[in-house]
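Subject: design request, 90 residues
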């Protein structure tokens, strides 16, 4: 028996990519608009000052395929918060 726990699957996510090519999940949402709207608060809440300065890009990705057999596909890079403001805060 299958129990659906959500009315709609969360199929969009944002990852921050650092200088050393490592990645960190920032936000998962139901739509690209929801993810875009929550990038800045997630970026500020989840990353410390050093991580913010080492961040290179934010990748918006969409789930492609069945829920149990698919993969994340890169859609676009999102706008990074200004590093000059981050440098002044540090």
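Subject: RE: design request

Done. Sequence follows.
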């Amino acid at each position: 028996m299958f129990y659906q726990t959500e009315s709609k699957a969360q199929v969009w996510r944002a990852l921050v990519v650092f200088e050393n090519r490592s990645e960190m999940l920032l936000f998962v949402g139901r739509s690209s608009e929801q993810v875009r709207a929550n990038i800045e608060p997630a970026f500020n809440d989840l990353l410390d000052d050093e991580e913010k300065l080492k961040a290179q890009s934010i990748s918006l990705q969409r789930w492609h395929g069945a829920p149990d057999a698919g993969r994340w596909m890169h859609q676009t890079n999102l706008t990074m918060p200004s590093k000059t403001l981050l440098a002044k805060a540090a």
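DSSP finds three helices and four strands in the chain.
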